[in-house]
Amino acid sequence: MKQMKLSLLAISLLLVSIVAIAEPPNVEYYPINPPSNPPSAETAVDDVITILLDQGFAGAIIVILFLWTYKTDKNNRATQKENFDKFVQISAECSGHMASVSARLENIEREIEATKQLEMLQATRKG
Question: Quick one: how far is CA 9 from the chain centroid?
């Protein structure tokens, strides 16, 4: 239920950000030919942070969605590892039981063959 609420919140914030960015730019504030900036010596991380800050509300939503996805994926990986460990344990137990059943079936097969041979010998003596 909590994940559903978070998903609805994230979707609604995403829709609001789409509406907010969908408006055409105002030419007074955004000139048609923006001045070219000289290349800076910033690192890639600084560039990403600058891009997110320039995006404003949409950038905040991107950061929130990233953190939420990272958290849920981390929990899913932990659950998946736990389930895999349980699977390995159950598989080992089943292999042991299957070996036991296989040995018993081989013993039963030997007994049946011995009984068949005994009956055939008795049938040939009578006949």
Answer: 22
Helices 44-55/57-126 angle, 10° precision: 110
Tell me the pLDDT tens digit for each residue of 57-86.
Answer: 787 888 889 999 999 999 999 999 999 999
Give the confidence band of 94 by pLDDT, cuts at 50, 70, 90. Answer: very high
CA distance 83 to 81: 5
Neighbour tally for 23: CB within 10 Å: 7
CA dihedral (90, 96, 99, 100) positive or negative: negative
CA separation for the pair 20, 15 (Å, rounded): 9
Q: What is the largest CA-CA distance in the chain?
A: 117
Q: Show the DSSP H helices in the chain as ranges.
A: 2-21, 44-55, 57-126
Tokens 């070219």 label which residue? 36
CB 28 within 8 A of CB 79: no
User: Tell me: the pLDDT tens digits for 30-54?
Assistant: 556 655 665 555 677 788 778 777 8
